[in-house]
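Here is an idea for our session: we take a single protein and study its fold together. Once you have written the record down, we can walk along the chain together.
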Amino acid sequence: MSDYTVGPLFSSPVITRHPANPILSPGNVPYGPAMVFNAGVAKFKGKYVMVFRNDYGDERKGIVAPHHTTNLGLAFSEDGIKWEVQPQPCWSWHDEEVIRVYDPRLTVIGEQCYMCFAVDTKHGLRGGIAVTEDFRSFEVLSLSLPDNRNMVLFPETIGGRYVRLERPMPVYSRGGRDRFDMWMSDSPDLKYWGNSRLLLAVEDVAYANDKVGPGAPPVKTDKGWLTLFHAVDLDRSRGKNGWEDSWKKRYTTGIMLLDLEDPSRIIGRAAAPLLAPEADYETAGGFRNDVIFPGGMILEDSGEVKIYYGAADTVECLATAHVDDLLRLCIEGAVK
């Protein structure tokens, strides 16, 4: 799959980048991270809440701090645009086995907020689920087997079971290269997971040749579960696109609609990306340029959909669209 070149990609005309972008940058955070991105965002107890990833380093020298320094930051907002960053990180995890936690995704179920997150350990990369009521303490409910991450939870049980999307990373069976797909599992209690099945394969997405996986937690509409995913293409001709000597990947965002009662059934999937790297803060000056990674999606009563995404693995941004336009993309503009 990674032997062909995808070519130029563009964002859908239904999407609008917010003029205040980036809505969160390292300079907005008082404790000095070099990168703030890949946030989970939700509405919880009357406010917008954002949990974001902090990485540290020196942009001028192109140096990234050791992984164990990564932690999670916290911000609140009244409108989902202007954010009040809390003075200290809200969570970190580093011990004899765990190296770091990162890439949070927030889902509100009932009166509690659940957070999926990635966990680097000395014996593999795992996906975790925690629950919190105040974002000061987190109870870890489950950790997956290695290697798995990019988990997101549906915001309600379906058929009496919790459902998550995930992206296992079977390097051994893929000849030592990326070729990762999007899967689905379910659970009776958020602790024990099974009934795993393939939802979307990388070869199904014309603008991906490397991997596909979950983005933001799905949003319920009367037509189905509106679901974002990340899609990655690899171009070996790409050179130095960021701090590293070379960065050859591009991350875009796709969108699809899943059946309300059986979310393993894809009703429709937009044929082209919803968001592709185009703005300066997505394509230049970041740690890894040409990266868009959606981590939060909120459907407002007005029909506006807020999509929060990390850009260039350095800043957090916001794009908007109307839910009717997104549904049309998935149904009328779907892959044939």
